[in-house]
């Protein structure tokens, strides 16, 4: 029996938002106000598409973007944690479910040699067009009213678990590690035996505690972390049990 580790990416594996970090490539490292103010709630992917067009229009090339993205710092302790998981792959299946994109995540994981730690990455598909512009698409369509229209992480997790069951793989426990508001939906899907690990001081932790105060707490256990060393210590306890 294995544990399933589910990671968010931005502000969880890396200590920044990959989508806002790319703005360092823009002229004067900032976006024009009109573009910056064009974001509409729930439509982040469309907004990022406009950002990528702006970068392309300003001659920002793939290699410059890649150099910039691979300077993003990992969250404190994360390099140790991913090393630990990599050494114990017989115990852990490990996936990423993120609202970033395939190009950014691939660059960052490969540059640090962590791509083999993860069995699958579920995120918005991205690619460079023939003209050298980065394009990004919605991950999927869904009917969840709580989530941004391009990605419901609960749906991703449920479909992954169903597919694994068909292959004869079921998990002793699921450990969900994240920070953001869009991590609440999958956390609410977790069962009593599972563990949600929200990052201390971030939106997910606040939303989970609001639910507890309104007497509709999540079913799973909740363990807050501030450094990935906290996560590693907890996983070490789990595998001893």
UniProtKB/TrEMBL annotation:
Substrate binds at residues 19, 99. Coiled coil: none annotated. The active site is at residues 8, 10. The keyword Metal-binding applies. The keyword Magnesium applies. It comes from the Eukaryota. InterPro entries: HAD-like_sf (IPR036412), HAD_hydro_PyrdxlP_Pase-like (IPR006384), HAD_sf (IPR023214), Pase_PHOSPHO-typ (IPR016965). One of its GO terms (molecular function) is phosphatase activity. Keywords: Hydrolase, Magnesium, Metal-binding. Mg(2+) binds at residues 8, 10, 179. Belongs to the HAD-like hydrolase superfamily. PHOSPHO family. PANTHER family: PHOSPHATASE, ORPHAN 1, 2, PYRIDOXAL PHOSPHATE PHOSPHATASE PHOSPHO2. NCBIfam families: DKMTPPase-SF (TIGR01489), HAD-SF-IB (TIGR01488). This is PHOP2 phosphatase.
């Amino acid at each position: 029996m294995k544990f399933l580790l589910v990671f968010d990416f931005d502000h969880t594996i890396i200590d920044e938002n990959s989508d806002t970090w790319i703005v360092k490539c823009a002229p004067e490292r900032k976006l024009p106000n009109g573009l910056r103010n064009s974001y509409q709630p729930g439509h982040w992917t469309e907004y990022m598409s406009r950002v990528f067009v702006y970068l392309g229009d300003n001659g920002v090339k793939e290699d410059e973007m890649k150099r910039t993205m691979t300077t993003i710092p990992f969250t404190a302790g994360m390099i140790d944690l991913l090393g630990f998981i990599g050494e114990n792959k017989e115990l852990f299946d490990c996936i990423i479910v993120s609202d970033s994109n395939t190009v950014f995540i691939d660059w960052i994981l490969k540059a640090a040699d962590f791509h083999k730690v993860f069995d699958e990455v579920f995120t918005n598909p991205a690619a460079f067009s023939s003209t050298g512009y980065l394009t990004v698409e919605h991950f999927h369509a869904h009917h969840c009213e709580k989530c941004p229209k391009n990605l419901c992480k609960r749906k991703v997790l449920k479909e992954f678990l169903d597919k694994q069951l068909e292959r004869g793989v079921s998990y002793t426990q699921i450990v969900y590690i994240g920070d953001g508001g869009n991590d609440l939906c999958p956390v609410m899907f977790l069962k009593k035996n599972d563990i949600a690990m929200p990052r201390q001081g971030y939106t997910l932790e606040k939303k989970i505690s609001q639910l507890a105060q309104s007497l509709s707490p999540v079913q799973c256990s909740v363990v807050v972390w501030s450094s990935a060393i906290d996560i590693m210590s907890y996983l070490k306890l789990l595998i001893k049990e």
